[in-house]
Amino acid sequence: MDLDVRPIPKSQRHHAVFAAFADLAVGESFELVVNHDPMPLRAEFDNDQYGASGWEYLQRGPEWRIRITRTAATPLPRVLADTHALADAHDADASGAVFRLTMGNRDLDSNVIALPPDGTIGEHAGPDLDVLLHVIAGGGTLTTEGEQLDLVPGALVWLPRHSRRQFTAGPEGLRYLSVHQRKPGLGLSQHP
Questions:
Q1: Digits of tens for pLDDT over the chain (192 positions)?
Q2: Is CATH 2.40.30.170 the classification given to domain 83-181?
């Protein structure tokens, strides 16, 4: 089967390719026809369909043909990051997400958040979902409506949905892994 995306509006092409891929059984393939080397699409496949897709160039320009094959029923498990390396990072002034999940088709979110020494995330109510934190480096405090909790490496902290919280990093900064269900409406992926 050929999938010629050239007549498809540009904003819908990736979605069309991923939809065709979703219909494949393991071992089946289709030929993608495009007018350029679709490197961004390939990167998206490598990220979202890790180990589950094969990509073979059959013809290069001016009409490009690529055979895309389903090699596994689902993307394969993989190591995404080394939290020891993220904990040992020497950028003391880092602030914000220093790691995040990037796969477009997922129902889980995870980030490693870094706060610089004495940095804070001001008091706020959490989102409409539970969050699990794992402190991987540094330290600090979590201030809640009722108490103040010490955040030390190895601490596993549950933040119930809507709970009030404030984070304050200690003199060495703070790095923690957060894991939660993907928030609705986030992500810029062009495929489901």
A1: 899 999 999 999 999 999 999 999 999 999 999 999 999 999 999 999 999 999 999 999 899 999 999 999 999 998 888 888 888 776 767 788 888 888 888 899 999 999 999 999 999 999 999 999 999 999 999 999 999 999 999 999 999 999 999 999 999 999 999 999 987 654 444 444
A2: no
Cα dihedral 153, 159, 164, 170 in deg (nearest 10)? 10
List the chain domain ranges. 2-70, 83-181
Residue with tokens 């890790």: 50
How far does Cα 145 stand from its chain's mean position?
A: 31
CATH label, 2-70, candidates 2.40.50.1070, 3.30.300.160, 3.40.50.620, 3.30.110.40: 3.30.110.40
Calculate the alpha carbon distances from 33 to 13, 23, 44, 70, 72 in Å: 11, 18, 17, 17, 23
Give the C-alpha separation, 18 to 128, whole Å: 30
How far, in Å, CA of 14 to CA of 82, rounded? Answer: 31
Query: Which residue has 């010629």 as its token pair?
Result: 4
In degrees and rounded to multiples of 5, residue 18 shows phi and psi of -65, -35
